[in-house]
Amino acid sequence: MKKALITGVTGQDGSYLAEFLLEKGYKVYGMRRRTSTPNYENVHAIKDQIEWLSGDLTDLASLMEAVRISQPDEVYNLAAQSYVAASWPQPLATGHMTALSVTNMLEAVRMMKPDAKYYQASSSEMFGKVQETPQKETTSFYPRSPYGVAKVYGHWITVNYRESFNMFACSGILFNHESPRRGHEFVTRKVTDAAARIKLGVQKELRIGNLDALRDWGFAGDYIKAMWLMLQQDEPDDYVISTGEMHSVRDLLEIAFSHVGLDYRDYIVMDPQFMRPAEVDLLLGDCSKAKQQLGWIPEVSFEQLIHMMVDEDLKRVKAEHRYYEELSGVTV
Ligand code: NDP
Ligand code: GDR
Predict the structure, then answer these.
(1) Both 54 and 154 in a single domain?
(2) Residue 221 lies in a domain
(3) What is the mean pLDDT of the chain?
(4) Probe residue for ligand 2, chosen from 87, 88, 130, 186 as the CB with the greatest number of ligand atoms within 8 Å
(5) pTM, to two decimals
(6) Rounded distance, CA 280 to CA 165, Å?
(7) Going by CA atoms, what residue is nearest to atom 29 of ligand 2?
């Protein structure tokens, strides 16, 4: 039985990856940090199938212990401070968690299980102010946020450990990927949740930022398969993972709101607090290398993805409100 260690297993990608690996017959070790209120929402269906280990990205000893106990064949380092907008008010925490912690994880693997295959969650945010379109593995980086800068560090230290210590270390340069498990502060989930709430009459407006930003959005369930495929190759390498299609935040609003029969223009309020000090205007990925070498292709279209998210949000918001009504006896 193969063994995998996943950091960030309670997050969006970690939960899909854990399900995928369990289905493949892996023993899955999930590392989670201590929080005052544990959140297993994304993994509740598989919680008992995961071997839980306690650890924090910033604590090398805990990472070494996680690797020592699990003795993994594969390590997926997905944990990070992953919200770009939070990286301006928390630049140092982001630097510790998203940049330096990658060295912690690589050191833990190098010292405790150097033959483990290692996956690093790199990001299209590294391209930032883009130098060529579409972006591919050879496109130069020009990050536009403390988060993007931190990811560039994580990316290059992974390449460096591969070249210095001959480790099987891969970096996946993943473009935005979403799902019904996406955190609520990210724009796709914020919009699909708002479309559901407004449709159900429990929210009146949606306060939002830059409508012109363009992103290459895919489905998280497709993208975690690419992570696994990278670690099944004979040689470690870096790959861009994307759909090759670009949409604006305006397109996202149009698709989500029209799915519930509403016109988004009647509900949005432009709010400067959601504008960023430096914006990434457009991201569009060229994933030809992953298609050719990994045989990977994205399966869910942008429209299918947004419909899936709105439908799940409608179900969840309805269920939440049924619960409150039963509790209070008041119809919301
Ligand atoms: P999420 O924000 O959903 O998940 C992040 C995970 O990291 C959570 O499980 C979180 O735990 C954990 N974590 C955060 N800080 C620490 C810490 N100090 N110690 C231990 N665990 C910690 O992110 P996604 O699943 O969306 O993304 C996964 C990775 O991929 C991230 O590194 C992200 O930056 C990167 N990425 C994501 C893309 C996307 O579009 N989703 C695109 C490109 C890269 P907790 O539940 O306790 O908060
Ligand atoms: P991003 O995702 O920054 O690309 O990072 P996010 O969904 O936060 O923003 C996408 C674009 O939408 C614009 N936008 C808004 N964003 C948010 N969050 N809230 C708003 O109200 C809003 N209005 C407009 C943003 O300005 C931006 O242009 C995600 C994360 O998952 C990273 O971890 C990952 O590395 C990258 O994708 C690739």
Answers:
(1) yes
(2) yes
(3) 97
(4) 186
(5) 0.97
(6) 34
(7) 176
